Amino acid sequence: MGLFGLLKEKCVYCREPIEKEKEINAEIKIPGYVGVFKKNFCSQEHINAYKSEVSTVKKTSGGGCCG
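-> structure tokens emitted (67 positions)
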């Protein structure tokens, strides 16, 4: 892998390195934080899967300041 493998962007969902200029950026709302965060993905399917996982975590987590 070498040094260049460490510098590549990785998909947030599958953690695989993404080719330069082929990453797909999406703004994701993370529960417990204000605003949205720009994340890198390798495909639209991974964006949809990540959003659904985040929404289920949000529904199953308890209320209050400490989650």
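The chain has a mean pLDDT of 81.
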